[in-house]
Amino acid sequence: MSEAIAYYPGCSGLGTSKEYDTSTRAVCAALGLSLVDIPDWSCCGSTPAHTKDHTLSAALSARNLQLVSDMGLKAAATPCPSCLTNLRTANHRIEGDAFKAKVNKLLDDPYGGDVNAISVLQALVETVGLDTIASAVRTPLKGLKVACYYGCIMNRPPELMAFDDCENPMAMDNILTALGATVVPFPLKVECCGASYGIPRPDVVAKLSGKLLEAAAGLDADMIAVACPLCQMNLDLRQGQINRAMGTSYRTPVPYFTQLMGVALNIPDAEIGFGQLNVDPRPVLSKALSGAD
Amino acid sequence: MNIINLTRDHDEDFVHRVEEESGQKVSLCYQCGNCTAGCPYTFAYDIPVSQIMRLVQMGQKKTVLSSKSIWLCATCESCTTRCPNNIDVACIMDVLRHMARREGLAAVPQVKTFWDSFLDSVRAHGRVFEMGLLINYVTKTGRFWTDMDLGPKILPKGKLALKPHDIQGKEHVARIFERFDRESNS
Ligand code: SF4
Ligand code: SF4
Question: Which InterPro entries match (chain B) (predicted)?
Fold first, then answer.
C-alpha cells in the first residue's frame, strides 16, 4: 500500500459528476491507492475566481491545501482538472513572497506552501502504475474502441501541470490499453469543449463540443473516455442540444475513464454509476465486449 | 471597422499595469499569430487574441477593456502553451478582465453575471451549490433558463441537489471574501 494521499473531490463531485467521484474512490480502493478525505474542504473558486482576482483565487485554493497540511499529508489528488489547475496555480504563485503574504492576509490560517497537488489520473499512472492496473483486470475491455479526450487544461501549460505531454498526452490512452481496449489516435485530445460557457453561451459549446463528437465518430470510436466533469457535461448532457444546433444525431456515450476501469476491475455497478450518464454506455459496451473472443 | 487613432489613444500607464499585474513582458510579442491560430474561440471573439496583444502593446486601453473577447476566453491555455516567446497570454487575458471589472466594463454581461453568481454561491455556502447558482443566474439576467430541457435529465438522477451542502467552515470562506472586499476597497 502506497503512502496516503488527500482526496479533493471538487464541488461537482457532490453533484453533476457524482459517478466520477464514486468510480474514482472504488477504483483507487481496489488498486490499493489510499485516498483520505479532507475534512470540511471548500470550493477552489474554479474559473470564476481567477477571472475576478488572482489573490482571491489563490486564497480559496490555499485554504484547502492548508487543511491537507494539517492532516500531516504532503500531496492531494483531485479528479477535476479545473480544481487541479487552481490548486497548482496557487502553489506556483505563492512561491513569490509578496504574493504569498497577500494570500495569507485573506486566510484565517496561513498556508505554508508545502502540499503538492496532482490529478487522480497522475496518481493512477505514477503511484499505482500501469503494470499493477493491467494485472488487476478481471474483465478485459477487448473489442471496445475508445477515443481518449483529456480536455484543454489537464496538461497545459506544461511548466505548470508538469505531467504527460501537452500536445499528445498518453496517460489515459495507456490505462485504457492496459485494460484491453483499443484506443484510437484522437487528434483533438487537448482541444477545448466550450468549458463553462454552456449556460451563458450554449452556441459556443455546441460548436466546440460538436467538433469533438464529429471527430470521434469519424474514427469509428464506440465512445469517448473523459477525465473532466465539465467536458463530460458538455459532451454527454448537452449532446441533444448539440445535435439540435448542428443538425446531427450522435448518441455517443461519454464515460469517465474511471468508470471504464471499474468495468474492467469488476467494481459493483452502483459505484460505476453508468445510470447517472445521459447516454448510457452499457448497450454499446456489452455489444463490443461480446463481439470479442 | 473601428478606426483607432494610435497616437492619440496611447496609454503608456495601461501597458505598465498589464505587465505588472500579469508578470509578462508584452513587448516580447512579435505578432506571429500562433495564439490566434490555436484559439478555439476566435470564431466568437470580436478581436482575435493576437490583435488584443498588439492593442495592449499600443496602449489601447479602452478598445481592449471594452472587447467581448476578454469575457469569452476560456483560459484553455492553448495560447500560453504555443507562444514561441513563452508569453503567458492566458494570464494576460485574465488580467484584462480584472481591469475591465474595475472600470465597470463587461462587454458580455451574461458571462460576468454567471461568474458572479457562482462566487456568491461559494461565499454563502463554502462550496458551489449548482441549483442555487442556476436560480440566481436566471433571476439576475431575467432570462428564461435556456437549459430548461436539461432539467429532467439530471434531476431524477439526484445530480442537482436541491439543498446546499454547507460546510462547517463556511464562515472561514465568507471571511476570505470579506477581507478581499476590504483590501480591494482600501
Ligand atoms: S503567439 Fe506569442 S508572439 Fe505570437 S502573436 Fe501570440 S502572443 Fe504574440
Ligand atoms: S486561453 Fe483564451 S485566448 Fe488563449 S487560446 Fe484559450 S480561449 Fe483563446
Answer: 4Fe4S_Fe_S_CS (IPR017900), HdrC_iron-sulfur_subunit (IPR051460), Helical_ferredxn (IPR009051)
Grid coordinates representing A44 are: 477552489
Q: In this structure, are strands A223-226 and A5-7 parallel, antiparallel, or unpaired?
A: unpaired
Structural domain span for residue A97: 3-121
Our answer on whether the CB atom of B69 is closer than 6 Å to any ligand 2 atom is: no
Sign of the torsion angle spanned by Cα atoms A283, A284, A289, A291: positive
Tell if the CB–CB gap between A52 and B101 is shorter than 8 Å. yes
A37: contact with B, CB 8 A cutoff: no
Three-state SS for A79-122 is CCHHHHHHHHHHHHHCCCHHHHHHHHHHCCCCCCCCCEEEEHHH
The answer to whether residue A127 is domain-embedded is no
- Is A102 in the same domain as A183? no
ipTM of the complex: 0.90
pTM of the model: 0.92
Size of interface A-B (CB pairs under 8 A): 162
Q: Which residues of A touch B116 (CB under 8 A)?
A: 48
Task: Looking at the structure, tell me whether residues A72 and A20 fall in a common domain.
Answer: yes
Same domain, A76 and A166: no
CA distance B7 to chain A (A): 30
Domain ranges within chain B, ordered by starting residue? 12-102, 109-185
pLDDT tens, B55-91? 999 999 999 999 999 999 999 999 999 999 999 999 9
Rounded Cα gap, residues A151 and A207, in angstroms? 15
| Residues with pLDDT less than 70, chain A | 1-2, 292-293
Query: 3-class DSSP state for residue B85?
Result: coil
| A182 and A281 both lie in a single domain | yes
CA of residue B71 to ligand 2 center, whole Å: 11
Q: Write out the three cell numbers for B125.
A: 455556502
Based on the fold, state whether residues A106 and A172 are members of the same structural domain: no
pLDDT tens for chain B, residues 1 to 186: 566 666 778 999 999 999 999 999 999 999 999 999 999 999 999 999 999 999 999 999 999 999 999 999 999 999 999 999 999 999 999 999 999 999 999 999 988 988 998 899 899 988 887 766 776 666 666 555 556 566 656 655 666 666 667 788 889 999 999 999 999 887
Say how many C-beta atoms besides its own lie within 10 A of residue A16's C-beta: 21
Does a cis peptide bond (omega within 30 degrees of 0) precede residue A9? no
Residue B133, CA atoms < 13 Å, CB-side half-sphere = 29
CA–centroid distance, residue B48 to ligand 1 (Å): 11
CA A125 – CA B56 distance, rounded (Å): 42
Pairwise CB contact (< 8 Å): B81 & A200: no
